[in-house]
From TrEMBL:
This is GDP-4-dehydro-6-deoxy-D-mannose reductase. It comes from the Bacteria. Residues 4-296 form the NAD(P)-binding domain. It comes from Bacillus oleivorans.
Amino acid sequence: MRALITGISGFVGQYLEKRLLKESNMVFGTSRSQRKENNYLCLNLLCEQEIVHLLKNIRPSHIFHLAGMSNVKQSWTARKHVIEANTSATINLLEAVKKADPNIRVITIGSSEEYGYLGSNQTPISEDSMLQPINPYGVSKAAVSMLVKQYYKADHLNVIHLRPFNHIGPGQSLGFVTSDFAYQLALINSKKTENNQMKIGNLEAIRDFTDVRDIVEAYYQIAMYGKSGEIYNVCRGIGVNIQTILDILLSFSDIQVETVTDETKMRPSEVSILIGSNQKLLNHISWQPKIPLEKSLYDIYQFWLSKINQKL
């Protein structure tokens, strides 16, 4: 495989690069800023001609399109930006593939947020479920999934669209629930706060969490063995409420922690339950998530603990 990862310097991109290199694949990556590494390239995904030029130069066999805006909460205050970063950029990439080499296999990354409100009686959610996104981020990704179908049928591109549910792991930025909780707990246990309070949001929401290291394994297997033109959920298929996430993290601390509800952590609109079905994925490839939730959360907590202690 000669792979190109857009957004390689992001949370998932860094893990995917490591996974691909394990198989001695040639890996190139793009980001918005120039890096010293020879295989890291600066690319403006809003410039189609720039993408065409890059593809002709490096001649990838596979593209993993990870670049874009991924924070649901921030998408409410940056609606135009999220459409440009997620939808317009993907159109430019697919148009560039058409012109440079239509045989390149393109893996586009969507989100479980494409499904929106479906209700607890419609879980687990399959790939055939109705798309009813309720936030700008979900809208941008739903548009991508529909575009991928069109490019497959009308232009015969070798494209696959993935809908990962919540993925977590060490190195994920703040603004995501497991990182936010683990960071606050690490601050408390490093005695870097004046009190032992953790700010929390909605603890009743139920989500389907999978470790990023399992997620990138799925991406690799799908790139190798997935079926063109298909959409795959990537998830564990088990729902966990946010209270459980909090309880597991608190079990790592010997200090008594007080939790305080913070209204700023509440989203303007939030789906109460999102649990995916991974049956289609299991039927097509042999992937299975292997890392337990407790292990993921412990590693996230240790990541922040180490990062905070390095600054002491």
